[in-house]
Design a protein that fits this description.
The longest helix is centred in the middle third of the chain and has 42 residues. By secondary structure, the chain is mainly alpha-helical. The protein is built from 6 helices and no strands.
């Protein structure tokens, strides 16, 4: 016969049959209990509640009390067993597993700190906010920062030799109309 460690193994092996049967038995017990309690009330209120009926009713009442006591005892035992199982599972985790778990968490923290230092370094070198830098190593972070800086830099405007003046085209000295306009406005 196979040894089972927990209820789920039994349930899996029987495709839920054991669980179904267990619930059916519990339901049947509850139904019998309820009918017994109802029967007790009928017997006590009956005119035939005398010697033999009284003995039978008292026996039924003792059985009900024993059943209740047994159910509470089983429930308490189940809770204690579940608590012990949880404690055993906690203890089962060996020291080496605990050490490995702590080592993994420490490695993750060290990687995060190393990445934060690289991000700060690249941000300072490239002049880009640190929270916008993406990448896992220094090269990819620098490349990302360069692309980001290029995208953030506004385009350069055209350079003018004399700001505020405009080229009027053709120099203006050979045009006779320009001379007339200058005389009119007193620019000569």
């Amino acid at each position: 016969m196979r040894q089972y460690n927990d209820w789920e193994e039994i349930d899996k092996d029987t495709n839920g049959l054991v669980t179904s049967l267990t619930y059916m038995v519990l339901f049947l017990n509850d139904q019998v209990y309820n009918y017994t309690v109802s029967l007790m009330e009928v017997i006590r209120n009956s005119e035939h509640y005398r010697h033999n009926a009284k003995r039978t009713a008292n026996a039924i009442e003792r059985e009900i009390n024993a059943y209740n006591t047994n159910i509470f005892r089983i429930a308490k035992a189940n809770k204690e067993a579940a608590d012990k199982l949880a404690a055993m599972e906690q203890e089962r985790q060996t020291d080496s597993e605990k050490i490995a778990d702590l080592a993994n968490r420490l490695d993750e923290k060290e990687r995060a700190e190393k990445r934060a230092k690289l991000v700060a370094k690249v941000a300072k070198e490239k002049g880009v906010p640190a929270d916008l830098i993406a990448g896992d190593d220094e090269e990819s972070m620098a490349a990302w920062a360069d692309r980001l800086k290029e995208a953030m830099t506004p385009p350069r405007l055209a350079k003018v030799s004399k700001p505020g003046t405009f080229d009027r085209g053709g120099g203006g000295d050979g045009d006779p109309m320009r001379g007339v306009v200058r005389q009119l406005f007193g620019n000569e």
